[in-house]
Amino acid sequence: MLKSIKESPLHRIANARSMAFFGASNNIASMGTHLLMTALAGGFKGKIYPVHRKETRVQNLTAYGHVGDLPEIPDLAVIVLPTSVVNQALEDCGKKGIRHAVVVSGGFKEVGDQGAQLERSFKKIASEYDMKILGPNCLGVANPHCNINTTFIPDEGAPGFVGLASQSGSFVTQIFEYLSGFGLGFSTAFSVGNEAVLDIVDCMEYLGACPHTKVIALYIEGIRRGRAFMEAARAIVPHKPIVAFYVGGSKAGKAAGFSHTGAMAGPDGIYDGMFRQTGIIRAGSVEEMFDFCWALGALPAPRGNRVVIQTHSGGPGAAAADACGRAGLKLSTLSEETLGKLAPFVPSTGSMGNPVDLTFSKNHGAFFSDIPDILLAEEDADVLLVYLLSPKRVVQRVLKGMGLADEAVGEQALKITQSNAEQFARRLKTQQKPIVGYTFHRSDAYIMKQAIARGLPVFQGAERAARAIAALVSYARVKQQRSI
Protein backbone atom coordinates (compact mmCIF):
# COMPACT_ATOMS: atom_id res chain seq x y z
CA MET A 1 0.00 0.00 0.00
CA LEU A 2 1.29 3.46 -0.90
CA LYS A 3 2.60 5.54 1.99
CA SER A 4 1.55 8.70 0.17
CA ILE A 5 -0.81 9.27 -2.73
CA LYS A 6 1.92 11.37 -4.37
CA GLU A 7 3.95 8.18 -4.86
CA SER A 8 1.33 6.91 -7.31
CA PRO A 9 2.08 7.15 -11.05
CA LEU A 10 -1.53 8.31 -11.38
CA HIS A 11 -1.22 11.25 -9.01
CA ARG A 12 -0.28 13.83 -11.63
CA ILE A 13 -2.90 12.44 -14.05
CA ALA A 14 -5.71 12.73 -11.51
CA ASN A 15 -4.41 16.06 -10.17
CA ALA A 16 -3.09 17.69 -13.34
CA ARG A 17 -2.41 21.42 -13.18
CA SER A 18 -2.25 21.88 -16.97
CA MET A 19 -3.26 19.85 -20.02
CA ALA A 20 -2.42 19.59 -23.72
CA PHE A 21 -5.29 18.39 -25.93
CA PHE A 22 -4.62 16.53 -29.20
CA GLY A 23 -7.60 15.98 -31.49
CA ALA A 24 -9.88 18.78 -30.30
CA SER A 25 -11.02 21.26 -32.95
CA ASN A 26 -13.88 23.59 -33.81
CA ASN A 27 -15.79 20.68 -35.31
CA ILE A 28 -18.55 19.89 -32.83
CA ALA A 29 -18.87 16.35 -34.23
CA SER A 30 -15.31 15.49 -33.18
CA MET A 31 -14.77 13.21 -30.16
CA GLY A 32 -11.75 15.25 -29.13
CA THR A 33 -13.82 18.42 -29.20
CA HIS A 34 -16.40 16.90 -26.89
CA LEU A 35 -13.73 15.85 -24.42
CA LEU A 36 -12.23 19.34 -24.44
CA MET A 37 -15.67 20.85 -23.92
CA THR A 38 -16.23 18.52 -20.96
CA ALA A 39 -12.95 19.64 -19.41
CA LEU A 40 -13.95 23.28 -19.86
CA ALA A 41 -17.49 22.72 -18.55
CA GLY A 42 -16.09 21.08 -15.42
CA GLY A 43 -14.31 24.26 -14.42
CA PHE A 44 -10.74 22.99 -14.73
CA LYS A 45 -8.56 25.56 -12.98
CA GLY A 46 -5.33 25.11 -14.93
CA LYS A 47 -4.17 25.98 -18.44
CA ILE A 48 -5.43 23.98 -21.42
CA TYR A 49 -3.39 23.97 -24.63
CA PRO A 50 -5.11 22.60 -27.77
CA VAL A 51 -2.58 21.23 -30.28
CA HIS A 52 -3.83 21.52 -33.88
CA ARG A 53 -1.91 21.68 -37.14
CA LYS A 54 -4.26 24.18 -38.83
CA GLU A 55 -6.42 26.03 -36.31
CA THR A 56 -4.98 28.95 -34.33
CA ARG A 57 -7.94 28.98 -31.92
CA VAL A 58 -9.87 25.94 -30.73
CA GLN A 59 -13.01 26.37 -28.63
CA ASN A 60 -11.93 29.92 -27.86
CA LEU A 61 -8.52 28.82 -26.65
CA THR A 62 -5.16 29.62 -28.25
CA ALA A 63 -4.06 26.57 -30.26
CA TYR A 64 -0.52 25.49 -31.10
CA GLY A 65 0.66 23.80 -34.28
CA HIS A 66 3.02 21.41 -32.52
CA VAL A 67 3.47 20.25 -28.94
CA GLY A 68 7.02 21.58 -29.07
CA ASP A 69 5.58 25.11 -29.44
CA LEU A 70 3.79 25.05 -26.08
CA PRO A 71 4.92 27.76 -23.65
CA GLU A 72 5.31 25.24 -20.81
CA ILE A 73 5.46 21.49 -20.22
CA PRO A 74 1.90 20.46 -19.33
CA ASP A 75 1.31 17.90 -16.61
CA LEU A 76 -0.97 15.84 -18.83
CA ALA A 77 -1.53 15.15 -22.53
CA VAL A 78 -4.98 14.01 -23.66
CA ILE A 79 -4.73 12.32 -27.07
CA VAL A 80 -7.79 11.71 -29.26
CA LEU A 81 -6.19 11.19 -32.68
CA PRO A 82 -6.46 8.63 -35.49
CA THR A 83 -4.68 5.45 -34.45
CA SER A 84 -2.03 5.79 -37.15
CA VAL A 85 -0.63 9.03 -35.68
CA VAL A 86 -1.02 8.36 -31.96
CA ASN A 87 2.47 6.97 -31.48
CA GLN A 88 4.08 9.93 -33.21
CA ALA A 89 2.13 12.32 -30.98
CA LEU A 90 3.20 10.29 -27.97
CA GLU A 91 6.85 10.52 -28.98
CA ASP A 92 6.53 14.26 -29.53
CA CYS A 93 5.11 14.56 -26.01
CA GLY A 94 8.02 12.57 -24.64
CA LYS A 95 10.52 14.85 -26.36
CA LYS A 96 8.72 17.89 -24.96
CA GLY A 97 9.06 16.47 -21.45
CA ILE A 98 5.43 15.51 -20.86
CA ARG A 99 5.44 12.45 -18.62
CA HIS A 100 1.73 11.71 -18.19
CA ALA A 101 -0.94 11.01 -20.80
CA VAL A 102 -4.46 9.77 -21.39
CA VAL A 103 -4.79 8.07 -24.79
CA VAL A 104 -8.44 7.86 -25.76
CA SER A 105 -7.84 6.57 -29.29
CA GLY A 106 -8.72 2.94 -29.97
CA GLY A 107 -7.62 0.59 -32.72
CA PHE A 108 -4.81 -1.16 -30.86
CA LYS A 109 -4.57 -4.75 -29.67
CA GLU A 110 -8.34 -5.03 -29.30
CA VAL A 111 -8.69 -5.09 -33.11
CA GLY A 112 -6.10 -7.75 -33.99
CA ASP A 113 -2.48 -8.30 -35.00
CA GLN A 114 -1.86 -4.95 -36.68
CA GLY A 115 -3.25 -3.09 -33.68
CA ALA A 116 -1.22 -5.27 -31.34
CA GLN A 117 1.96 -4.28 -33.19
CA LEU A 118 1.05 -0.60 -32.79
CA GLU A 119 0.49 -1.17 -29.09
CA ARG A 120 3.93 -2.77 -28.72
CA SER A 121 5.46 0.36 -30.28
CA PHE A 122 3.24 2.47 -27.99
CA LYS A 123 4.66 0.71 -24.92
CA LYS A 124 8.22 1.07 -26.19
CA ILE A 125 7.81 4.84 -26.53
CA ALA A 126 6.28 5.05 -23.06
CA SER A 127 9.22 3.12 -21.62
CA GLU A 128 11.80 5.22 -23.47
CA TYR A 129 10.45 8.48 -22.05
CA ASP A 130 9.27 7.05 -18.70
CA MET A 131 5.69 8.09 -19.47
CA LYS A 132 2.78 7.09 -17.24
CA ILE A 133 -0.21 6.51 -19.50
CA LEU A 134 -3.87 5.54 -19.16
CA GLY A 135 -5.08 3.69 -22.25
CA PRO A 136 -5.11 3.41 -25.14
CA ASN A 137 -8.80 2.88 -25.82
CA CYS A 138 -10.00 4.56 -22.63
CA LEU A 139 -11.66 7.74 -21.37
CA GLY A 140 -9.08 8.63 -18.76
CA VAL A 141 -9.98 10.18 -15.46
CA ALA A 142 -12.65 12.11 -13.60
CA ASN A 143 -11.66 13.76 -10.32
CA PRO A 144 -14.57 15.99 -9.28
CA HIS A 145 -12.65 17.17 -6.21
CA CYS A 146 -10.13 18.82 -8.55
CA ASN A 147 -12.49 19.71 -11.41
CA ILE A 148 -10.73 17.29 -13.75
CA ASN A 149 -12.77 15.31 -16.29
CA THR A 150 -11.29 13.94 -19.52
CA THR A 151 -14.39 11.91 -20.39
CA PHE A 152 -17.18 12.45 -22.90
CA ILE A 153 -19.94 13.54 -20.50
CA PRO A 154 -19.75 16.33 -17.89
CA ASP A 155 -20.18 15.07 -14.35
CA GLU A 156 -23.31 15.83 -12.35
CA GLY A 157 -23.84 16.36 -8.67
CA ALA A 158 -21.28 16.94 -5.97
CA PRO A 159 -17.94 15.16 -5.53
CA GLY A 160 -18.35 11.96 -3.55
CA PHE A 161 -16.65 9.03 -1.84
CA VAL A 162 -16.85 6.24 -4.45
CA GLY A 163 -13.53 5.48 -6.13
CA LEU A 164 -13.83 3.59 -9.41
CA ALA A 165 -11.30 1.68 -11.51
CA SER A 166 -12.95 0.45 -14.68
CA GLN A 167 -11.87 -1.50 -17.71
CA SER A 168 -14.77 0.17 -19.48
CA GLY A 169 -14.94 3.90 -20.05
CA SER A 170 -18.74 3.83 -20.01
CA PHE A 171 -18.95 3.23 -16.30
CA VAL A 172 -16.87 6.31 -15.64
CA THR A 173 -18.70 8.67 -17.94
CA GLN A 174 -22.26 7.28 -17.95
CA ILE A 175 -22.66 6.72 -14.20
CA PHE A 176 -22.47 10.38 -13.14
CA GLU A 177 -26.22 10.87 -13.49
CA TYR A 178 -27.04 7.48 -11.94
CA LEU A 179 -24.99 8.20 -8.82
CA SER A 180 -26.17 11.78 -8.44
CA GLY A 181 -29.75 10.49 -8.28
CA PHE A 182 -28.81 8.82 -5.00
CA GLY A 183 -26.85 11.76 -3.66
CA LEU A 184 -23.59 9.98 -4.50
CA GLY A 185 -20.53 10.92 -6.54
CA PHE A 186 -17.08 9.76 -7.48
CA SER A 187 -14.01 10.62 -5.46
CA THR A 188 -11.89 9.74 -8.48
CA ALA A 189 -12.79 7.43 -11.36
CA PHE A 190 -10.32 5.86 -13.79
CA SER A 191 -10.92 4.27 -17.17
CA VAL A 192 -7.92 2.05 -17.97
CA GLY A 193 -8.77 0.73 -21.44
CA ASN A 194 -6.12 -1.65 -22.82
CA GLU A 195 -3.79 -1.09 -19.84
CA ALA A 196 -0.68 -0.80 -22.00
CA VAL A 197 1.22 1.01 -19.22
CA LEU A 198 -0.93 1.69 -16.14
CA ASP A 199 -3.52 -0.85 -15.10
CA ILE A 200 -6.32 -1.52 -12.63
CA VAL A 201 -3.80 -2.43 -9.90
CA ASP A 202 -2.21 1.03 -10.14
CA CYS A 203 -5.70 2.53 -9.83
CA MET A 204 -6.51 0.42 -6.76
CA GLU A 205 -3.33 1.59 -5.06
CA TYR A 206 -4.10 5.24 -5.85
CA LEU A 207 -7.66 4.94 -4.54
CA GLY A 208 -6.43 3.08 -1.47
CA ALA A 209 -4.35 6.15 -0.59
CA CYS A 210 -6.92 8.74 -1.73
CA PRO A 211 -8.29 10.73 1.25
CA HIS A 212 -11.62 11.33 -0.52
CA THR A 213 -12.26 7.64 -1.23
CA LYS A 214 -14.25 5.63 1.33
CA VAL A 215 -14.99 2.61 -0.87
CA ILE A 216 -13.45 1.27 -4.11
CA ALA A 217 -15.48 -0.14 -7.02
CA LEU A 218 -13.85 -2.32 -9.69
CA TYR A 219 -15.35 -3.15 -13.09
CA ILE A 220 -13.24 -6.07 -14.33
CA GLU A 221 -13.03 -7.85 -17.68
CA GLY A 222 -9.70 -9.56 -16.98
CA ILE A 223 -6.74 -9.21 -14.58
CA ARG A 224 -3.25 -9.27 -16.09
CA ARG A 225 -1.14 -9.01 -12.92
CA GLY A 226 -2.89 -11.52 -10.70
CA ARG A 227 -0.33 -11.63 -7.89
CA ALA A 228 0.04 -7.83 -7.75
CA PHE A 229 -3.76 -7.50 -7.78
CA MET A 230 -4.12 -9.81 -4.79
CA GLU A 231 -1.27 -8.15 -2.88
CA ALA A 232 -2.80 -4.71 -3.43
CA ALA A 233 -6.25 -5.89 -2.38
CA ARG A 234 -4.93 -7.54 0.78
CA ALA A 235 -3.17 -4.32 1.76
CA ILE A 236 -6.19 -2.09 1.08
CA VAL A 237 -9.15 -4.14 2.37
CA PRO A 238 -8.38 -3.79 6.10
CA HIS A 239 -8.65 -0.02 5.63
CA LYS A 240 -11.21 0.38 2.83
CA PRO A 241 -13.80 -1.96 1.33
CA ILE A 242 -13.42 -3.05 -2.29
CA VAL A 243 -16.43 -4.13 -4.38
CA ALA A 244 -15.87 -5.88 -7.71
CA PHE A 245 -18.08 -6.75 -10.68
CA TYR A 246 -16.44 -9.31 -12.97
CA VAL A 247 -17.95 -9.91 -16.42
CA GLY A 248 -15.50 -12.37 -18.00
CA GLY A 249 -16.75 -15.54 -16.32
CA SER A 250 -19.24 -16.54 -18.99
CA LYS A 251 -18.44 -17.42 -22.60
CA ALA A 252 -20.34 -14.37 -23.84
CA GLY A 253 -18.70 -12.07 -21.28
CA LYS A 254 -15.24 -13.36 -22.15
CA ALA A 255 -15.78 -12.74 -25.86
CA ALA A 256 -17.21 -9.27 -25.26
CA GLY A 257 -14.34 -8.29 -22.97
CA PHE A 258 -11.71 -9.40 -25.48
CA SER A 259 -13.28 -7.42 -28.32
CA HIS A 260 -13.71 -4.42 -26.02
CA THR A 261 -10.23 -4.00 -24.52
CA GLY A 262 -8.36 -7.16 -25.50
CA ALA A 263 -8.73 -8.44 -21.93
CA MET A 264 -7.96 -12.13 -21.36
CA ALA A 265 -10.69 -13.30 -18.99
CA GLY A 266 -10.38 -16.36 -16.76
CA PRO A 267 -12.81 -18.92 -15.34
CA ASP A 268 -15.40 -17.48 -13.02
CA GLY A 269 -14.35 -19.76 -10.16
CA ILE A 270 -10.78 -18.45 -10.21
CA TYR A 271 -11.94 -14.87 -9.84
CA ASP A 272 -14.41 -15.87 -7.17
CA GLY A 273 -11.54 -17.44 -5.25
CA MET A 274 -9.33 -14.37 -5.71
CA PHE A 275 -12.03 -12.10 -4.37
CA ARG A 276 -12.78 -14.37 -1.41
CA GLN A 277 -9.10 -14.77 -0.47
CA THR A 278 -8.44 -11.04 -0.54
CA GLY A 279 -11.67 -9.89 1.12
CA ILE A 280 -13.09 -8.22 -1.98
CA ILE A 281 -16.90 -8.18 -2.01
CA ARG A 282 -18.29 -9.49 -5.28
CA ALA A 283 -21.33 -7.85 -6.88
CA GLY A 284 -23.63 -9.58 -9.36
CA SER A 285 -24.40 -6.50 -11.46
CA VAL A 286 -23.37 -2.90 -12.00
CA GLU A 287 -26.37 -1.71 -9.99
CA GLU A 288 -25.46 -4.03 -7.14
CA MET A 289 -21.85 -2.85 -7.19
CA PHE A 290 -22.94 0.73 -6.56
CA ASP A 291 -25.62 -0.37 -4.04
CA PHE A 292 -22.87 -2.05 -2.04
CA CYS A 293 -20.61 0.98 -2.37
CA TRP A 294 -23.41 3.22 -1.12
CA ALA A 295 -24.00 1.16 2.01
CA LEU A 296 -20.31 0.56 2.71
CA GLY A 297 -19.38 4.21 2.30
CA ALA A 298 -22.32 5.71 4.19
CA LEU A 299 -22.93 3.37 7.13
CA PRO A 300 -21.06 2.08 10.20
CA ALA A 301 -20.02 -1.56 10.37
CA PRO A 302 -22.60 -3.82 12.05
CA ARG A 303 -21.60 -6.10 14.93
CA GLY A 304 -23.36 -9.06 13.33
CA ASN A 305 -26.04 -10.13 10.86
CA ARG A 306 -29.19 -9.71 12.98
CA VAL A 307 -31.80 -7.43 11.40
CA VAL A 308 -34.90 -5.84 12.85
CA ILE A 309 -37.48 -4.67 10.32
CA GLN A 310 -39.76 -1.68 10.87
CA THR A 311 -42.75 -1.26 8.57
CA HIS A 312 -46.27 0.09 8.41
CA SER A 313 -47.45 -2.46 5.86
CA GLY A 314 -47.53 -6.24 6.18
CA GLY A 315 -46.63 -7.18 2.62
CA PRO A 316 -43.43 -5.12 2.39
CA GLY A 317 -42.47 -6.38 5.85
CA ALA A 318 -42.88 -10.01 4.82
CA ALA A 319 -40.96 -9.34 1.60
CA ALA A 320 -38.13 -7.82 3.63
CA ALA A 321 -38.04 -10.81 5.98
CA ASP A 322 -37.83 -13.18 3.02
CA ALA A 323 -35.13 -11.07 1.35
CA CYS A 324 -33.07 -11.04 4.54
CA GLY A 325 -33.27 -14.82 4.81
CA ARG A 326 -32.19 -15.26 1.20
CA ALA A 327 -29.25 -12.89 1.78
CA GLY A 328 -28.00 -14.93 4.74
CA LEU A 329 -29.20 -12.51 7.40
CA LYS A 330 -31.05 -13.38 10.61
CA LEU A 331 -34.14 -11.70 12.04
CA SER A 332 -33.71 -10.40 15.58
CA THR A 333 -35.73 -11.83 18.46
CA LEU A 334 -37.11 -8.87 20.36
CA SER A 335 -36.70 -8.87 24.12
CA GLU A 336 -39.55 -8.45 26.61
CA GLU A 337 -38.13 -5.04 27.45
CA THR A 338 -38.29 -3.94 23.82
CA LEU A 339 -41.81 -5.31 23.40
CA GLY A 340 -42.93 -3.38 26.47
CA LYS A 341 -41.53 -0.15 25.08
CA LEU A 342 -43.20 -0.76 21.70
CA ALA A 343 -46.64 -1.53 23.10
CA PRO A 344 -47.91 2.08 23.37
CA PHE A 345 -47.05 2.74 19.71
CA VAL A 346 -48.33 -0.40 17.99
CA PRO A 347 -52.11 -0.57 17.40
CA SER A 348 -54.12 -3.74 17.80
CA THR A 349 -54.15 -4.09 14.01
CA GLY A 350 -50.36 -4.19 13.93
CA SER A 351 -47.72 -6.68 15.02
CA MET A 352 -44.90 -6.55 17.56
CA GLY A 353 -43.06 -9.48 16.06
CA ASN A 354 -40.20 -8.99 13.67
CA PRO A 355 -41.09 -7.34 11.29
CA VAL A 356 -42.55 -4.70 13.60
CA ASP A 357 -45.67 -3.74 11.65
CA LEU A 358 -47.60 -0.60 12.66
CA THR A 359 -50.18 -1.13 9.87
CA PHE A 360 -51.76 2.23 10.69
CA SER A 361 -50.78 4.52 13.53
CA LYS A 362 -52.31 7.80 14.54
CA ASN A 363 -48.93 8.95 15.83
CA HIS A 364 -47.16 9.20 12.49
CA GLY A 365 -44.19 11.06 13.95
CA ALA A 366 -43.32 8.16 16.26
CA PHE A 367 -42.42 6.08 13.21
CA PHE A 368 -39.42 8.36 12.63
CA SER A 369 -38.41 8.97 16.26
CA ASP A 370 -39.58 6.83 19.18
CA ILE A 371 -39.84 3.50 17.39
CA PRO A 372 -36.38 3.60 15.73
CA ASP A 373 -34.89 4.49 19.12
CA ILE A 374 -36.55 1.49 20.74
CA LEU A 375 -35.46 -0.92 18.00
CA LEU A 376 -31.90 0.40 17.83
CA ALA A 377 -31.58 -0.17 21.59
CA GLU A 378 -32.46 -3.85 21.17
CA GLU A 379 -29.40 -5.94 22.11
CA ASP A 380 -30.32 -8.69 19.64
CA ALA A 381 -30.42 -6.27 16.68
CA ASP A 382 -27.38 -5.23 14.64
CA VAL A 383 -29.13 -3.43 11.77
CA LEU A 384 -32.42 -1.53 11.44
CA LEU A 385 -34.21 -1.99 8.10
CA VAL A 386 -37.03 0.51 7.60
CA TYR A 387 -39.80 0.55 5.01
CA LEU A 388 -40.33 4.17 3.99
CA LEU A 389 -43.78 5.16 2.81
CA SER A 390 -44.79 8.79 2.97
CA PRO A 391 -46.93 9.70 -0.06
CA LYS A 392 -46.92 13.43 -0.74
CA ARG A 393 -50.63 13.58 -1.51
CA VAL A 394 -51.59 11.78 1.71
CA VAL A 395 -49.53 14.21 3.80
CA GLN A 396 -51.15 17.11 1.98
CA ARG A 397 -54.62 15.62 2.50
CA VAL A 398 -54.04 15.36 6.25
CA LEU A 399 -52.88 18.98 6.38
CA LYS A 400 -55.92 20.15 4.45
CA GLY A 401 -58.13 18.16 6.83
CA MET A 402 -56.51 20.05 9.70
CA GLY A 403 -57.72 23.30 8.15
CA LEU A 404 -54.46 24.49 6.60
CA ALA A 405 -54.90 26.94 3.72
CA ASP A 406 -54.26 25.49 0.24
CA GLU A 407 -51.35 27.84 -0.46
CA ALA A 408 -49.54 26.68 2.68
CA VAL A 409 -50.11 22.93 2.29
CA GLY A 410 -47.20 22.25 -0.08
CA GLU A 411 -44.67 24.12 2.02
CA GLN A 412 -45.81 22.52 5.26
CA ALA A 413 -45.82 19.02 3.73
CA LEU A 414 -42.22 19.54 2.68
CA LYS A 415 -41.26 20.70 6.17
CA ILE A 416 -42.84 17.61 7.75
CA THR A 417 -41.03 15.30 5.33
CA GLN A 418 -37.75 17.10 5.94
CA SER A 419 -38.25 16.77 9.69
CA ASN A 420 -39.00 13.03 9.39
CA ALA A 421 -35.90 12.48 7.26
CA GLU A 422 -33.82 14.53 9.69
CA GLN A 423 -34.91 12.23 12.53
CA PHE A 424 -33.32 9.26 10.79
CA ALA A 425 -30.26 11.25 9.78
CA ARG A 426 -29.69 12.29 13.39
CA ARG A 427 -29.76 8.66 14.49
CA LEU A 428 -27.28 7.71 11.78
CA LYS A 429 -24.83 10.16 13.32
CA THR A 430 -25.41 9.23 16.96
CA GLN A 431 -25.98 5.45 16.78
CA GLN A 432 -23.35 2.81 16.10
CA LYS A 433 -25.83 0.62 14.24
CA PRO A 434 -26.60 0.96 10.51
CA ILE A 435 -30.03 2.18 9.42
CA VAL A 436 -31.08 1.11 5.91
CA GLY A 437 -34.23 2.18 4.09
CA TYR A 438 -36.22 0.45 1.37
CA THR A 439 -39.21 1.67 -0.55
CA PHE A 440 -41.30 1.40 -3.70
CA HIS A 441 -41.46 5.17 -4.09
CA ARG A 442 -39.85 6.72 -7.15
CA SER A 443 -36.39 8.15 -6.59
CA ASP A 444 -37.79 11.69 -6.91
CA ALA A 445 -40.46 11.18 -4.23
CA TYR A 446 -40.51 13.57 -1.26
CA ILE A 447 -39.32 11.11 1.37
CA MET A 448 -36.69 9.50 -0.89
CA LYS A 449 -35.09 12.82 -1.81
CA GLN A 450 -35.09 14.14 1.74
CA ALA A 451 -33.76 10.95 3.34
CA ILE A 452 -31.04 10.42 0.72
CA ALA A 453 -29.96 14.06 0.91
CA ARG A 454 -29.29 13.52 4.61
CA GLY A 455 -27.14 10.44 4.11
CA LEU A 456 -29.63 7.58 4.59
CA PRO A 457 -29.29 4.86 1.93
CA VAL A 458 -32.77 4.02 0.63
CA PHE A 459 -33.01 1.15 -1.86
CA GLN A 460 -35.67 0.32 -4.40
CA GLY A 461 -37.15 -2.86 -2.96
CA ALA A 462 -36.30 -5.12 -0.05
CA GLU A 463 -34.05 -7.42 -2.08
CA ARG A 464 -31.56 -4.69 -2.93
CA ALA A 465 -31.59 -3.45 0.66
CA ALA A 466 -31.01 -6.93 2.10
CA ARG A 467 -28.10 -7.65 -0.26
CA ALA A 468 -26.53 -4.30 0.64
CA ILE A 469 -26.82 -5.17 4.34
CA ALA A 470 -25.23 -8.55 3.62
CA ALA A 471 -22.31 -6.72 1.97
CA LEU A 472 -21.96 -4.58 5.10
CA VAL A 473 -21.92 -7.70 7.28
CA SER A 474 -19.44 -9.44 4.99
CA TYR A 475 -16.99 -6.55 5.07
CA ALA A 476 -17.32 -6.19 8.86
CA ARG A 477 -16.32 -9.85 9.20
CA VAL A 478 -13.42 -9.51 6.78
CA LYS A 479 -12.13 -6.43 8.55
CA GLN A 480 -12.34 -8.16 11.92
CA GLN A 481 -10.46 -11.20 10.59
CA ARG A 482 -7.75 -9.06 8.97
CA SER A 483 -7.20 -7.06 12.16
CA ILE A 484 -6.70 -10.11 14.37
> Which percent band covers the strand fraction?
15-25%
Number of strands: 20
- Strands ordered across the widest β-sheet: 9-8-11-10-12-13-14
Helix/strand class? alpha/beta
Structural account:
With 484 residues, the chain is α/β, with parallel strands linked by helices. Helices cover 42% and strands 16% of the residues. The chain has 2 domains: 5-295, Rossmann fold (3-Layer(aba) Sandwich); 300-483, Succinyl-CoA synthetase domains (Rossmann fold, 3-Layer(aba) Sandwich), CATH 3.40.50. It has 18 helices and 20 strands. The strands form 4 sheets. Strands 9-8-11-10-12-13-14 form a 7-stranded mixed beta sheet, sandwiched between helices. Strands 15, 16, 17, 18, 19 and 20 form a 6-stranded parallel beta sheet that branches. Strands 2-1-5-6-7 form a 5-stranded parallel beta sheet, covered by helices on one side. Helix 3 packs parallel to helix 4, helix 7 (200-209) packs parallel to helix 8 (226-236) and helix 8 (226-236) packs parallel to helix 10. The radius of gyration is 26 Å and the shape is elongated. The chain starts with 10 loop residues before the first helix and ends with a helix.
